[in-house]
Design brief:
This protein is an alpha/beta fold. The protein is built from 21 helices and 19 strands. Among the domains are: 163 residues, Alpha-D-Glucose-1,6-Bisphosphate, subunit A, domain 3 (Alpha-D-Glucose-1,6-Bisphosphate, Chain A, domain 3), CATH 3.40.120.10; 155 residues, Alpha-D-Glucose-1,6-Bisphosphate, Chain A, domain 3; 79 residues, TATA-Binding Protein. The structure holds 2-acetamido-2-deoxy-6-O-phosphono-alpha-D-glucopyranose and zinc ion. GO terms for molecular function: magnesium ion binding; phosphoacetylglucosamine mutase activity.
Length: 583
């Protein structure tokens, strides 16, 4: 009875304006922030139900609209493993968000709880718990209130407000909490800083004598006092090249820059300057800045100038789950040399591959070798040159449709799965089984005094600690990039030159009904209307290195066209002619 009343009360506090329609798309619900309260309240009810269904394991609710304009807002749910909510629940999310009145909502919840065997109405204090996070948007606090009321509408559910966070921080906290590991923000920072310092500053000389190594659990070891002492022996400031140390970070006037400011002084060998940091007067969230802007426009963000020519720069998006790098190469225009998600992926793949090769080098003892299934996952937007580069490294490259949930799922199939979208969202997933193999191999190598191999194993373990295992994370991605560059002694230029991107062009086409276009083969081919693929093939055949695909957007009411060819002009003209066929 109380359960019924609470649901009715919550639903009537945030009535759905007539004519509103929400859809749980690739990134949850999104709309103008001022209209989002009903959807947020209902998503919160769902997050509590999800937790109740899973025996009270914590779920997460993030209030953010990522790289979208500041007036927008959104909400999405994280599952107990820190990943996106199970797709099987998305249709119910839609139904709940669009329930026309309180009574309809109540009936939906009761029916769903029955179908899914979710215990409702009591069952103790910890029947359900939801961690809440939000970005810096002005509507965030108001929507937080709607979320709290949604969670309180489920009897026995507890809301834990984690405050203003990056999206990946909240996903990390949900995952850590359910694993029983320390899950506060300072735990997150400590883990990032320690593993960063480990990879970047662990010089061969630092491990002069392996007898000094304590026999201990390796992961514990990574954050142990021993390592801390060891790191203190390594000069914090390796001196050297000022340009190599300097990194300018465009924080998109969002939460990522704020968090980076908090930890930057602890990052040895790096001199980080944050621009568009979100401080009063510095600019508007995501406006003319941020990872999405830089990746799409390929020009310098607001707040940068010709004085920054030659300096390595990075750009985050508004909730810090996307990362790209760039560098201004000339003073004459505002164009940048872009290092997108594909090249970040390539750097990670190269590094991991190298460490595995070191471990397995001259291996005559089978018990030392570490056979690893290493795979990379991309989407059709990945630049053709990157895919070629990765295949030449001998790696398995898989393609999935656009959207983190698809890439993440595929990456879980490997011992080490690296996924990135060209837009800069991605991470590296290490399977638990592989981590334990790595730990035991590492111990063995340690007792055999195989220094180089042991260190390579430790570097991989440190990488698994550094890079967010729940979701793509710009802060941890940035630190892994910087650690690898320091470890390899590479400049930004060295990294850029891994391969040269094929010229490409993206267009969007407004159409009557974008759902009329249906794609297949990870969005590389159109299956309906069937004549369209023939036209695309015909156009593409006119160009050397030509590649082109179209897909309906999951976040906007448009059809997107992507074309690649050997020159910029050719890529533009291919995109244009295909766009004409779409119209
Ligand atoms: C969302 C997705 C992103 C994808 C983008 C594509 C998540 C968390 N985010 O932002 O991965 O690249 O949508 O947008 O899944 P589009 O469908 O409009 O091209
Ligand atoms: Zn984002």
């Amino acid at each position: 009875q109380e359960q019924r009343q609470r649901l009715l009360a919550a639903a009537s506090r945030f009535p759905l304006p007539s004519g509103t329609r929400f859809s749980y798309g690739t990134a949850g619900f999104r709309a103008d922030g001022a209209t989002m309260a009903p959807a947020v309240c209902r998503a919160a009810i769902l997050a509590a139900l999800r937790s109740a269904k899973l025996g009270g394991a914590a779920t997460g609710l993030v209030i953010t609209a990522s790289h979208n304009p500041v007036r927008d807002n959104g909400v999405k749910i994280a599952d107990p493993d820190g990943g996106m909510m199970d797709q099987r629940w998305e249709p119910f999310a839609d139904a709940l968000a669009n329930a026309p009145d309180p009574d309809a909502l109540l009936q939906l919840v009761l029916q769903f709880a029955k179908d899914e065997e979710i215990p409702l109405g009591g069952g103790g204090q910890h029947m359900a718990q939801v961690l809440l996070g939000r970005d810096t948007r002005p509507t965030g606090e108001y929507l937080l209130d709607a979320a709290l009321q949604g969670i309180n509408a489920i009897v026995g559910a507890r809301a834990i407000d984690m405050g203003i966070l990056t999206t990946p921080q909240l996903h990390w906290m949900v995952r850590s909490k359910n694993k029983g590991i320390k899950a506060s923000e300072s735990d997150y920072f400590t883990q990032l800083i320690d593993s960063f310092r480990f990879i970047s500053t662990l010089l061969p000389a630092a491990f002069g004598s392996l007898e000094e190594l304590p026999e201990t659990d390796v992961l514990e070891f990574l954050t142990s006092n021993f390592i801390r002492r060891l790191l203190e022996l390594v000069p914090k400031d390796k001196g050297g090249d000022e340009l190599a140390k300097k990194l300018i970070v465009d924080g998109a006037n969002g939460i990522g820059g704020v968090k980076l400011e908090q930890i930057k002084t602890e990052l040895s060998g790096l001199d980080i300057v944050v621009r568009n940091s979100g401080k009063e007067g510095e600019g508007i969230l995501n406006h003319m800045c941020g990872a999405d802007f830089v990746q799409k426009e390929r020009v310098i963000p607001h707040g940068f100038s010709s004085e920054d020519v030659g300096v390595r720069c990075a750009s985050l998006d508004g909730d810090a789950d996307r990362l790209v790098y760039f560098c201004m190469s000339s003073t004459s225009d505002n164009r940048v040399d872009l290092v997108d998600g594909d090249k970040i992926l390539s750097l990670f793949a190269l590094f991991i591959r190298e460490q595995l090769d070191i471990i397995n080098k001259n291996d005559d003892q089978a018990n030392r070798s570490l056979p690893a299934k290493l795979g990379v996952v991309q989407t059709a937007y990945a630049n053709g040159a990157s895919t070629k580069f990765l295949k030449n490294l001998g790696l398995e490259v898989a393609l999935t449709p656009t959207g983190v949930k698809y890439l993440h799922k595929k990456a879980l199939e490997y011992d080490i799965g690296i996924y990135f979208e060209a837009n800069g969202h991605g991470t590296v997933l290490f399977s638990e089984d592989f981590i334990s193999q790595l730990e035991s191999v590492s111990k063995k190598l340690c007792s055999e005094a195989a220094v180089a191999q042991h260190q390579a194993a430790m570097r991989l373990l440190a990488a698994s600690q550094l890079i967010n295992q729940a979701v793509g994370d710009a802060l941890s991605g940035l630190l892994l990039v910087e650690a690898i560059l320091q470890y390899k002694g590479w400049s930004f230029q060295n990294w850029c030159e891994l391969y040269s991107d094929l010229p490409s062009r993206q267009l969007k086409v407004k159409v009557e009904d974008r759902t009329a276009i249906v794609t297949t083969n990870a969005e590389t081919k159109v299956s309906q209307p069937s004549s369209l693929q023939e036209l695309i093939d015909m156009e593409t055949a006119n160009y050397t290195h030509g590649r082109c695909f179209v897909r309906p957007s999951g976040t906007e009411d448009v059809v997107r066209v992507y074309a690649e060819a050997s020159t910029q002009e050719a890529a533009e003209s291919l995109a244009k002619s295909v766009a004409d066929h779409v119209e």
